[in-house]
Amino acid sequence: MNTYVRPALSLALLMTLVTGALYPLAVTGIAQVAFPEQANGSLVRDARGEVRGSALIAQDFQGDGWFHSRPSAGAYATVASSASNLSPSNPALAERVGSEAAKLYRAEHGPVPQALLTTSGSGLDPHLPPEAVAYQVARVAAARKVPVERLQALVEEATLHPLIGPPVVNVLALNQALERLGQ
């Protein structure tokens, strides 16, 4: 029996050491050297150096003077990160989307973009399509007493064009630019 137990325990200990300690330490070290910003959470800081959020996680912006992110099924909490799991045929989803659409609807702008009504897969997507941000420009401009053209230029500057996929706007970065505009 000893001929089986000793090698099994030795192998379990060795694999625990390699996969549970050495490999994670090596990957963490490489990430810290090669990609320190991303390895530390892609933190976004304000002019005073205070952390305002992460470029990878949506935030809940309240009030008409800010661009709003997508809705979040988990109240923008990373612990509860998930979609709502409501199927398209679920009456609760239709009711929530209808209620949200009624709140956001402006006749002069047409239908509310879907990205402002539905959650992302994680519930924490920090990006919106430019059309969803453009839908909010008039509201933000009126609340801040800023010319619409100036905000449209700000949105255009904040629009990212990834190598693959459609253009997107990081709402936190856009709101930070908006905050700097007011100073």
Automatic annotation (TrEMBL):
Q: What is its main location?
A: membrane
Q: Tell me which family the UniProt entry assigns to this protein.
A: Belongs to the KdpC family.
- Which protein are we looking at? Potassium-transporting ATPase KdpC subunit
The answer to keyword Cytoplasm applying to this record is no
Keyword check for GTP-binding: no
Q: What does this protein do?
A: Part of the high-affinity ATP-driven potassium transport (or Kdp) system, which catalyzes the hydrolysis of ATP coupled with the electrogenic transport of potassium into the cytoplasm. This subunit acts as a catalytic chaperone that increases the ATP-binding affinity of the ATP-hydrolyzing subunit KdpB by the formation of a transient KdpB/KdpC/ATP ternary complex.
For this protein, the record's PANTHER family field holds: POTASSIUM-TRANSPORTING ATPASE C CHAIN, POTASSIUM-TRANSPORTING ATPASE KDPC SUBUNIT
Q: What compartments host this protein?
A: Cell membrane
Q: Which membrane topology describes this protein?
A: Single-pass membrane protein
The record describes its quaternary structure and partners as:
The system is composed of three essential subunits: KdpA, KdpB and KdpC.
Keyword terms of this UniProt record = ATP-binding, Cell membrane, Ion transport, Membrane, Nucleotide-binding, Potassium, Potassium transport, Transmembrane, Transmembrane helix, Transport
Which Pfam families does UniProt cross-reference here?
Answer: KdpC
Please name the InterPro entries in this protein's record. KdpC (IPR003820)
